[in-house]
Structure formats: structure tokens, C-alpha cells
Design goal:
The complex is a heterodimer of chains A (202) and B (161). Chain A is 27% helix and 29% strand. By secondary structure, chain A is of the alpha/beta class. Chain A has a single domain (6-200), classed as Vaccinia Virus protein VP39 (Rossmann fold), CATH 3.40.50.150. The N and C termini of chain A lie close together (11 Å). Chain B is mostly beta strands and 161 residues long. Chain B has a domain at 25-124. Chain B has no helices and 13 strands. In chain B, strands 1, 2, 3, 4, 5, 6, 7, 8, 9, 10 and 11 form an 11-stranded parallel beta sheet that branches. In chain B, a hairpin with a 5-residue loop joins strand 12 and strand 13 (138-140). Chain B is globular. Chain B starts with 23 loop residues before the first strand and ends in a 21-residue tail after the last strand. The chains are: A alpha/beta (202), B mainly beta (161). The A-B interface holds A 12, 15-16, 18-21, 46-51, 53-55, 57-58, 62-67, 70-71, 88, 145-146, 148-152, 154, 156-160, 162 and B 97, 109-124, 126, 143-144, 146-149, 151-155, 158-161. Strand 4 of chain A pairs antiparallel with strand 11 (117-124) of chain B, so a sheet runs across the interface.
């Protein structure tokens, strides 16, 4: 996968993805890629939810979950420097075949995004893949959501009212720039301003 | 001199009553234990425990005030407090929204409430994906299928398509 194209196929632009869900082509490709890896070790940085634990744990050999959203929220509430959360991602280098970032980058400033991307690059094995979601300029709520995976890679957004995190809107080019250490693999527009990205480590 | 058959003025201590099936031991929030705990009844921890806990056929609950750093072997485990360690459950592990868990979970099933903090390695008990039924037809196992339970959606009034 070398071409980096936005693909509108099989998405639901008419509906609110939070309410009715959307078919996640990126997740389907991500899982296909993961299934081909011998170790199939996956890291999900949250928000962790029961449905996703069941979904992923039944499809990978080992599922690692480390909810960075809650850690980030706790740091902000307590006024602790946010960069302390990165010590939680203390896994050995090249531990994972896939990392699910969801919308974590949208909740971080540029310096912490850079730190996150560097960490992910270190934690991912060569050929491994990262999936990220960028909300962009979303009208209405900027509250954090869990990306709840349902049947047939349909993803539903479930509000996480316990999380009070800033939303930093980023455009397509910002995402490509911040993920520079990775090879862009694919992107999908889920609705205007809401995109899914797949990046691969060389 | 006492007569052999004289009736004692005080009643002898009553023999211990059989333990009811649903009885549980509670380690209160002012109690701190280091070492190994083995038991044959349910255990609720609201205090502090460090070491290992074996209640193989029973339920272990780490209450909201509980702080546990231990290797755990139990039938079912509920975590509402802080737990650092590895959990091996033959049944279900439930993690409530107040929980702060870090460690490894091996269980037949897991439930996690939104809001719980998890840093975990999760391995669900697996059976062969395609078991051959007596009729010779392969039987699809539940865990190999996408989730069938209803999801709580942002707008419960809307239907997925």
C-alpha cells in the first residue's frame, strides 16, 4: 500500500456516525493487515470499552490496552504536566504489530503529538500499522467518544462524559505532517471533517 | 467433688455452625495484609493486600477502597478499587468504572465499564474456532463472531443501518 488516497466508498455521509455508526474501512484493512502478522499483538490506547476488548481480544493473540484518555484527563484535572502520561506507554521497543490511536492526537498539543508519534514509531514493529481518527472541525460537541466496534466493522461513537479533554482540530495536511515518521497507507473520509488514517512503519 | 452427671451451670460453648454457601470474608479498609491468602469462600477486600490470593472456586471483589498488589486466582473477579497484578479467572472478570487496574487478565469473559482505567494485557479463553459437532457440521464459536450484543449509541432513538 503506497498510494495515499481519500476514499469515500462505503461510508455514510447522510447519517450521524455517532448515532447510527459508520462502516470503518480503515479498521477492516487494519485488521486484515494484523491477521497476516505472525504475533498479532495489538495496542489500544482507549478510550477502553468492553465491546472493543471482546472484539479485538478474540481476533489477536494478545491485546494490550492502555487508556491514555483517562490518564490525560486526570493530569488536566490535577494540573499535572501532561507529558507524564507517556511513562505509561513503557513497553519495550517493537512490541506491537498494530496500534489503535483513535482520536488521541486530537486531544494533544503539537509537542505531545510529536512525543506520541515518536513513541508509537518505537513501539511498532517494522511493517506494523497505526490507525488514527481525526475529527477535524466538528460542529456541536467536542466531547471525547469511545469508538465502539460493532458487527461488520461498524463503528459507533459513544460519548464519554467523564472525560473533559480539549479538542484540537487538525486538517489533513497537519495529520500527514505529524505522522511523518510513518508511511501513509490509506485514508477514508467518514463525513466532512472526520477522517480515518492508516500509517505503516517501514 | 464434682459429680460426673451434674448439670453444668454454664452452657458449653456452641459448636461452630456450618458456613453458609454465600458467606464471604471481608478485609476491612483498616486492614493491611502481606502474604498468601487461600480460601474457600468469597472474599471482599476493602483494605490493602500484597502477595497472592487464591479463592479458586469463589469470587474475589476488590472494593472501591481496596488496594491490592497480588497474583490472583479465582473463579470470578470484580474490581472497583486499585489492583496491580495478574488475574487468572476461570469465569468472569468485571471491572467497574471506579477501578484502576494494571496487569494481565486471563478469563473466560470480561466486562468493563466506561471510565475504568485499564493498563492491561488481555487474553480471553479460546476454544477452537471451528468445533465439529456430532452431526459433523462445524460449529461457529461465539467469540469468533462479531459482537451481537446491543450497543449503547449516542442517540438511542436512531437505528443503525
Amino acid at each position: 500500500m503506497t498510494a495515499f488516497t481519500a476514499d469515500r466508498k462505503n461510508t455514510d455521509l447522510k447519517h450521524d456516525p455517532g448515532a447510527v455508526g459508520y462502516s470503518s474501512n480503515a479498521l477492516e484493512l487494519f485488521m486484515e493487515h494484523l491477521q497476516q502478522r505472525p504475533e498479532r499483538k495489538l495496542l489500544d490506547v482507549g478510550p477502553v470499552c468492553q465491546e472493543n476488548i471482546r472484539f479485538f481480544a478474540s481476533r489477536v493473540k494478545k491485546l494490550y490496552v492502555c487508556d491514555m484518555f483517562i490518564r490525560l484527563d486526570r493530569c488536566i484535572r490535577k494540573g499535572i504536566p501532561v507529558d507524564q502520561i507517556w511513562e505509561k506507554l513503557d513497553y519495550p521497543p517493537q512490541s506491537f504489530d498494530g496500534i489503535l490511536l483513535w482520536e488521541l492526537a486530537d486531544r494533544l498539543d503539537d509537542a505531545d503529538v510529536k512525543r506520541l508519534v515518536t513513541l508509537c514509531h518505537s513501539l511498532l514493529r517494522p511493517g506494523g500499522m497505526v490507525m488514527a481518527v481525526v475529527l477535524g472541525d466538528q460542529p456541536g460537541s467536542s466531547g471525547a467518544n469511545a469508538f465502539v466496534v460493532g458487527q461488520n466493522f461498524r463503528v459507533y461513537l459513544r460519548p464519554q462524559p467523564h472525560l473533559h479533554l480539549p479538542l484540537r482540530s487538525r486538517q489533513n495536511r497537519d495529520v500527514l505532517s505529524m505522522m511523518a515518521p510513518f508511511i501513509p497507507a490509506k485514508s477514508f473520509i467518514c463525513r466532512p471533517g472526520f477522517m480515518e488514517f492508516l500509517f505503516r512503519r517501514e | 467433688m464434682l459429680k460426673k452427671n451434674r448439670k453444668a451451670t454454664a452452657e458449653p460453648p456452641a459448636p461452630p455452625k456450618p458456613v453458609p454457601v454465600d458467606q464471604k470474608t471481608i478485609i476491612g479498609d483498616q486492614i493491611s495484609i502481606e502474604g498468601t491468602i487461600r480460601g474457600k469462600e468469597d472474599l471482599l477486600i476493602e483494605g490493602s493486600v500484597k502477595g497472592s490470593i487464591e479463592v479458586k472456586a469463589h469470587r474475589l471483589t476488590v472494593g472501591v477502597k481496596g488496594q491490592v498488589e497480588a497474583e490472583i486466582l479465582a473463579a470470578n473477579v470484580t474490581v472497583s478499587g486499585r489492583l496491580a497484578g495478574n488475574v487468572n479467572a476461570t469465569g468472569k472478570v468485571e471491572i467497574t468504572k471506579e477501578a484502576d487496574f494494571s496487569g494481565e487478565i486471563k478469563a473466560r469473559s470480561i466486562s468493563v465499564e466506561d471510565g475504568a482505567y485499564l493498563k492491561a494485557v488481555i487474553e480471553m479463553d479460546r476454544e477452537p474456532l471451528n468445533r465439529v459437532s456430532p452431526s459433523g457440521k462445524p460449529v461457529e464459536k461465539t467469540f469468533s463472531e462479531p459482537i451481537k450484543e446491543s450497543l449503547i449509541l449516542a442517540d438511542k432513538g436512531s437505528k443503525g443501518n
